[in-house]
């Protein structure tokens, strides 16, 4: 290249708050000013719907949101100077709303791109709110013609091709792309890489970070050259500004200047990072001073305690052991040891008195009936009462510790171990819980080895094991994944080598326990399909899984 011209962009990979229009606007202004003053940038990119936060859902219908967005745009025009700003916002036009990206320089709107492709699958419901755009949007900065796209626009072929035909030399893509396992490889190899191949244009892909209810946005913003090679990748789950230099040669071709390429994380590292970030954001964005949780001495609560401490710091976490006559000394010792290892406040409160009093109160009602799950669930509900009492008194939010395998088959107690405000591992299968615990222990040995090695048990009756009522998790988890994430039938799952009667029983348990899941707290979505916004099975149903 001879005499290249350089365009300096900054990707503002920010963690924004849904509905906090004023706060988000202040952060956009601050990011623009820092990009201009510290990095001498020509252009700064903010994520999809940065002004409102993503996803704003039915807040979009509120007249107050419309007024606040209008004020935000006036602020951006007034306060962002000396740099080109691209920021996502909800654009109101009469009765219609567009998911748009505004381009502003020195108070002048240079362009406005309306998202053309509106996702309406899995966790997305954008056709409920937005009208699709139809036109390509090109903005010229320092002689470089950039095609502006918004998230789903790059998952389909037409918008990028329209931008190329309109004269774009580079694609600038602002996103709110939620995290799930292996999503980054899909973004790079199957989505952006495919658009680059089709258009011959390099791409700058900026993604949101942060937790929003069940959704987790991982960042992982990156730059790709016209050959489809990643030339820059920034850290996941990290809020910061990242410089991207683009050089325009005399032939009119844009070349991203190679920069740091952060390696892709392992599955365990990325899932754990998502759980930590999601828990931190849920607690902090709701302004809770900390969390309280039950610590049983089992693997699930052990992992949740690690997540809580890594998310919030030990000083904001309170663990509580609540033994009964069925709790082993090993469980009590291991819970206390892990609490010491992580330096958290730890209490031990026996539920024996509560349990005895409840059984006495119900003696006449239970007369003539043998002990069963009713007595087991009473223990869990006694623990829920204690934990919610501590939560109410201290203001700390209660974390639940149930995993996806348990939630799928109803191996959880309503108003007992399901009681709480947030469920960090709600979308983690039991086998994934073990993998994450081992990964966390490899960083520092905080979970006692026998917590990981011992057979799992709820310890609600003598010598109880999970396998008394469920198949081994090595069998259960693949069956559940095939049904929940792949929508396979009993016959299709059995064809993979599983006992057909077992498959039928498990799928029936999933169907019958929908009423429980509807009453469960939200948790971080990490899989291709989580219980929550992308699982919409009816509670009342005569459907028979076959």
Topology:
Layout: E1 5-13, H1 21-37, E2 43-45, H2 63-79, E3 84-93, E4 96-105, E5 108-114, E6 138-141, E7 144-150, H3 157-165, E8 170-175, H4 183-199, E9 203-207, E10 209-212, E11 215-218, E12 222-224, E13 230-233, E14 240-248, E15 254-256, H5 267-285, E16 291-294, H6 299-312, E17 317-321, H7 329-342, E18 345-348, H8 352-361, H9 363-366, H10 373-394, E19 397-399, H11 404-409, H12 430-443, H13 449-453, H14 473-484, H15 490-494, H16 500-512, H17 514-517
Parallel strand pairs: 1-2, 2-3, 7-8, 8-9, 16-17, 16-19, 17-18
Antiparallel strand pairs: 1-14, 3-4, 4-5, 6-7, 9-12, 10-11, 12-13, 14-15
Molecular structure report:
This protein is α/β, with parallel strands linked by helices. Helix content is 37%, strand content 19%. It is built from 17 helices and 19 strands. Strands 5-4-3-2-1-14-15 form a 7-stranded mixed beta sheet, with helices on one face. α1 packs parallel to α2, α6 packs parallel to α7 (329-342) and α14 (473-484) crosses α16 (500-512). The longest helix has 22 residues, at 373-394. The protein is elongated and about 85 Å long. The model has no long low-confidence stretch (mean pLDDT 94).
Characteristic terms for this protein:
single chain, 546 residues, alpha/beta, 7-stranded mixed sheet, 6-stranded mixed sheet, 19 strands
Brief synopsis:
By secondary structure, the protein is of the alpha/beta class.
